[in-house]
Amino acid sequence: MNETTGQNATEGAVRVRSLFRYLKRYWFWLALAPAAMLLETAMDLMQPALMTDIVDVGVRELRPEVVRATGWRMLLCAALGALGGMACTFVSSRAATGFGNDLRKALFARVQRLSFAQTDRFTAGSLTTRLTNDVMTMQFVVVMLTRMLLRSPFLLVGSVVLVLRTDWRLALPLVLSAPPLAWIVVHWMRRMMPLFAAGQKRTDELSSAMQEALEGIRVVKAFAAEDRVRGSFGARNEALADTGLQSGMLGATLGPALQFVQQVALVAIVFLAAREADAGLVKVGQIAAIVNWSTQVMMSLVMLSFQSMHFSRAMISARRLAEVVCTEPEIRDGPRADPPADASVELRGVSFSYPGASGDPVLRGVDLRVEPGEHVAIVGGTGSGKTTLLSLLPRFYDVTGGAALVGGRDVRDYRLDALRGAMGIVMQNPRLFSGTVAENVRWGRADASDEEVLRVLRIAQADRFVAGFPAGLATDIAQGGTTLSGGQRQRLAIARALLRRPRILLLDDATSAVDPATERALRAALRAEAAGTTVLTVAQRVDSIRDADRIVVLDGGAVAGVGTHDELLASCPTYREIVDSQSTDPREDSLTEAGKEAR
Ligand code: ADP
Asked: What pTM did the predictor assign?
């Protein structure tokens, strides 16, 4: 996430512990894993001791019955060890998968509650990699921790104790090799950690670039910009590969460096052992066992260092996940669960600046009261704050000054579902989802009957084109509604919003791609069929909102005039300018003509 994500997230970064709550549920499996692992490791430790019996008693004293009996015991140990190993892997995988699953669910739920500003700051690409890569890293580390992290120290301590018990002098090289090994690991980790962090960041960037390129694939093709997109994707891909190469190269040095120290220690042990055997202080079988145990000590050390590497890597992921889990939604529920008492809307001295934005506020001292059932249109130049004004009502953003009221209450008093449940919202460039036409419209209300769906389609002037589809309501729509025209998509989105039976309908330039005649028919149908619904419409085309009860003119974030079309023509220069600019637009005229013809 960007550095600017705010107080919540900064605290979240240190609250990695908050992730443990998702692990606690699996305590039973987590407790079983070390038990099974202990069985496996104990069996591993016993093998060299049994081997000693075979060599020193069975072979040297020529007692085949000892070889046979010990051989059977070794087999039994191997079988028990394998059983322990399997059980341990099974239970630790069970815990890790459950943990990963719960964590992903919790993260997804949290992401959905974040405000627009918060998700923008995280970026969709980073949230995607957090929910996938980072959770997987955590899952892996849970398996590793339950299975390997205990096994290695146990094997290490057990082997050292057994070597000491057999011949303490031969343990000396082992003890002496510990400091250089530790130095190598610490030094290596210091260089590796920044590379890991950079790798995660670059994966985020790559994922964002990929997402953007795929979502905007039509624009890319329209501009024949494949090379350009490939170039920017390629650059990020290279950057990621570069980090991967650096960590790969560094990774390649760790194993050989550790092995070199180990080999030196092993040679020292064998050298010492040979001298002791000459002096009759130690038997051949014992030497074999000691070499075996020493190898296990070394192996455990190597394992431990790799585990600490994975662990550190997982800590980076854990921090990134905790950041999301601990980010409190900026827009939170208010206390009131009941819906607004009426469909009135009011802005009282509202000012607003986008979070993190500098410069003049986007809205300044906006006062406006809309009565229940009133149809109010908002017009103004591009960037005058029309969309922003609408987005304050469902609390996509909270006002930074003054208050927005719905049903006579501050919008912050309502629970979000109560507030938004009373509204039907159609945004600019509405998004449809993969599924049938009916399924898409039923996003508005899942239990609506077919008649209701057809009714709202009629109001939205979408019934005829839907009837023209091969499968009618059951026609499949591609993700994002890309198989429909812009105007069709907008009308389906209006139908979807109407199905909620909203008391307040917010239309943000929602008919910009609909021809003027159809748009007029739609407005007339809205008046007739959704009487009592308050409608706030943001419009570019003045022609389309002439019949609004009142028109609000925004200029540079402030209200420049309120009134009917005729009143504003007489009193508001900004409005006159807008009207003049549009009536001289030849394209607009021809559109209107086309609309008349269509009618
Ligand atoms: P309109 O709908 O009238 O064209 P908007 O309400 O969309 O205008 O935008 C008003 C101003 O707010 C513009 O200057 C725009 O750049 C800025 N703006 C819009 N959305 C954001 C955002 N998410 N973050 C920061 N600034 C924004």
From this structure: 0.74
